[in-house]
Amino acid sequence: MKALQMAQQSDPVSSQLSVASRLTAPLELVEKTMSSIKIEHVVHEKYRIGESPVWEEKEGALLYVDITGQKVCRWNPQTNQVQSIAVDAPIGSLALRKSGGYVVAVGRRFGSLSWEDHSVTTLANIDEDKPNNRFNDGKVDPLGRFFAGTMSQEIRPAVVERNQGSLYTLFPDHSVVKNFDQVDISNGLDWSLDHKTFFYIDSLSYNVDAFDYDVTTAQISNRRHMYKLEKDEGIPDGMCIDAEGKLWVACYSAGRVIRLDPETGPVVSTPQTEFNLIHIFRVVH
């Protein structure tokens, strides 16, 4: 029986899991059995930076982005066909809209993407004083607010101008709140099962942080370090939470995923692979 399956994100929040690989590696599907973890190739196209897997139940398809390839992709597992839409800037993440289409974090703006006419309509601009910045990872909260963070353009993989990024929230009325700045590489994020804790990764800090979360107002507070990775564990990148409340963190440069208990720390680490995994979404059993 599959314990880890493909990503699913809807309004409000995702409910399944997928892994995307870095640079030229294909997207991965992680399947966990009782005794082992198997990595299976499901899309054999190559991407510069494959990230932000989102399962769209209505279409029966997996959405994801190629960040520096500047495109949104949609894979149909029944036909094994991949469709894509080019955008005009690096695209960090996307989410589904109740009204149809997608919200995207592209370049330095939030936008609305129409698959039918391949258009992106700007909803809000951010980091206007930092032309070298771009959006990175993002995800919707339990009530459908879209959280997404920024970073400076990479000089080379995982090397950036420090403290240039911020974490933003896009609300349904298209208003935007900056939660905090002084971020190196804004990355994985998710919420506890009771919606009272927000988990967040700034990759170059090597920390998985926790905040108190007010789901009514979408406000975060009381930041603290939950777990600090050692350098040989890799750089923390994408993250999701499973049905048991454990966090799965993809570790760039180490080719592994670690599972963390927010109360006690590491639970299990996958074997190293030839891929630099960067992104995972929700786990189901």
Automatic annotation (TrEMBL):
List the GO biological process terms.
L-ascorbic acid biosynthetic process
| E.C. no | 3.1.1.17
> Which reaction(s) does the protein catalyse, per the Swiss-Prot or TrEMBL entry?
D-glucono-1,5-lactone + H2O = D-gluconate + H(+)
Instruction: Give the protein's cofactors.
Output: Zn(2+); Mg(2+); Mn(2+); Ca(2+)
The record describes how the cofactor is bound as:
Binds 1 divalent metal cation per subunit.
Name of one Pfam family that matches: SGL
Show the active-site residues. D237
Domain spans labelled SMP-30/Gluconolactonase/LRE-like region: 49-268
Compartmental location: Cytoplasm
UniProt: a divalent metal cation binding residues? E51, E154, N187, D237
Instruction: List cellular component terms (GO).
Output: cytoplasm
Q: Does the keyword Zinc apply?
A: yes
Q: Which GO terms describe its molecular function?
A: calcium ion binding; enzyme regulator activity; gluconolactonase activity
- Which enzyme class? hydrolase
> What keywords does the record list, in alphabetical order?
Calcium, Cytoplasm, Hydrolase, Metal-binding, Zinc
Q: Mostly located where?
A: cytoplasm
**Record-listed substrate binding positions:** R134, N136
Q: Which family does it belong to?
A: Belongs to the SMP-30/CGR1 family.
> What is this protein's name?
Regucalcin
Give the species this sequence originates from.
Answer: Pleurodeles waltl
Organism lineage: Eukaryota, Metazoa, Chordata, Craniata, Vertebrata
